[in-house]
Design goal:
2 domains; 379 residues; binds manganese (II) ion; binds guanosine-5'-diphosphate-alpha-D-mannose; Spore Coat Polysaccharide Biosynthesis Protein SpsA, Chain A; 10% strand; 12 helices; alpha/beta
């Protein structure tokens, strides 16, 4: 066990030989980051630590604030991601940018009690553990001033998580934990990195069960900035659970894409009914209009929901729409072609139609994921 004093660091130099990296995802937290660094300085005396803020290009200039701190404090680093959103993926990228043997994840908004970091580190170093979790649901921990409805939602989400994580883990929803670097590398290629719940992801993605321990803390109130918890978080959580349960068979993104496509059919029928049955257009023109509206609907919703983390905006939105419509037109031709081919060989009309639909959907999904949203191409 090497108890090293914090190395003397000169400005602009990385925290050479850091033993603990603290990864902090940020979105609009400019008024919290300075205070967090101050508190870490106090609580982590005698530890060679660094803090890596991973900011998704916050409009309030959080990244600039972090860089200003880094200019005088070499323990501070900033990873700024452009055109990306997502707490989990931010954590993963921050963790991968560090080389310390111990890596922690915590929020920027001072709701997690940094005071337990030294105990987390000591447990990981001294005990047979892979990961230590800051927990609100073990003796001595608590939710602080949560109202009953948020507490109930948290309990429900926790119960759901037990489909993919061990039930002995009391606070899988926690975004506050520390692990050994090897655990990261062992899991990283299987992580879904979708949405908010990175700890659930780790537990569900590890090949061997993780040896863990929970240390209590009480969740604090947020003072500056605001929570990013919204309906999208619930959807992302559903997608994460789905991905962990069936992701090895079908990607969860495909399920979202197919669901939106299903709604697109309803939109199509509604438009067609209004235009054709309403006596405004012929069937062919009505069908063409309904197809166009449905494609715009599908593109817009996939952009907001399925690809929220890589959302296209402004001119890129328009370019995306055009490529989406082109790809889906080819998908429609393939769909009709295959359905006709099967139908001509006595495939039965329902089975032939379904086969055409599945083929079209898979084509649309696979090709738009590369050409429209350009998965993985962004920084
Ligand atoms: N980079 C990045 N990208 N950071 C984000 C994003 C994003 O899209 N969304 C949120 N964050 C950052 C916030 O700036 C904050 O530092 C942290 O992630 C948590 O976000 P909050 O909006 O404060 O979340 P919360 O307080 O509702 O949820 C917290 O409590 C949960 C326990 O119920 C988080 O700690 C969760 O991780 C935790 O599970
Ligand atoms: Mn918070």
């Amino acid at each position: 066990m090497h108890e090293r004093a914090a190395p003397a660091l000169t400005s602009g130099q990385g925290a050479a030989g850091a033993e603990l990296s603290i990864v902090v995802p940020t979105f609009k937290e400019k008024d919290n980051v300075g205070e967090l660094v101050k508190r870490l300085e106090v609580t982590l005396q005698g530890v060679a630590w660094e803090v890596i803020f991973v900011d998704d290009d916050s409009p309030d200039g959080t990244a600039d604030t972090v860089r200003a701190l880094a200019a005088t404090n070499p323990r501070v680093r900033c990873v700024q991601r452009i055109d990306r959103r997502g707490l989990s993926s931010a954590c993963v990228e921050g963790m991968l940018s560090s080389s310390a043997p111990y890596v922690a994840v915590m929020d920027a908004d001072l709701q997690h009690d940094e005071g337990i970091l030294p105990a987390m580190l000591a447990s990981l170093k001294q005990e047979d553990l892979d990961i230590v979790v800051g927990s609100r649901y073990v003796d001595g921990g608590g939710l602080g001033q949560w109202d009953e409805s948020r507490a109930a939602i948290s309990r429900f989400a926790t119960r759901l998580s037990h489909m993919v994580v061990p039930p002995e883990l009391k606070d899988p929803m926690s975004g506050f934990f520390m692990l050994r670097r090897e655990v990261l590398h062992q899991c990283v290629r299987r992580l879904s990195a979708l949405g908010f719940k990175i700890l659930v992801d780790f537990f569900a993605s590890s090949e061997q069960p993780l040896r863990f321990k929970e240390l209590p803390y009480t969740f604090r109130n947020r003072i500056a900035g605001e929570s990013k918890l919204d309906n999208q978080v619930a959807w992302d959580y559903g997608m994460l659970l789905l991905d962990k349960m069936i992701g090895h068979i079908v990607p969860a993104r495909f399920v979202a894409f197919a669901l939106i496509g299903g709604f697109g059919v309803l939109v199509h029928m509604a438009v067609l009914t209004a235009l054709y049955k309403g006596g405004w257009l012929s069937f062919a023109s009505g069908q063409a209009s309904a197809t166009t509206v449905a494609m715009v609907f599908n593109f817009a919703f996939n952009n907001i929901i399925t690809y929220r983390d890589q959302q296209l905006k402004g001119l890129a939105w328009l370019r995306g729409l055009i490529s989406f419509m082109l790809v889906c037109s080819v998908g429609a031709i393939a769909n009709v072609g295959v359905a006709n081919y099967l139908f001509d060989r006595d495939g039965g009309w329902v089975a032939s139609a379904l086969a055409g639909i599945v083929l079209g959907a898979v084509w649309n999904y696979a090709v738009t994921s590369v050409y429209t949203w350009g998965k993985g191409k962004k920084t």
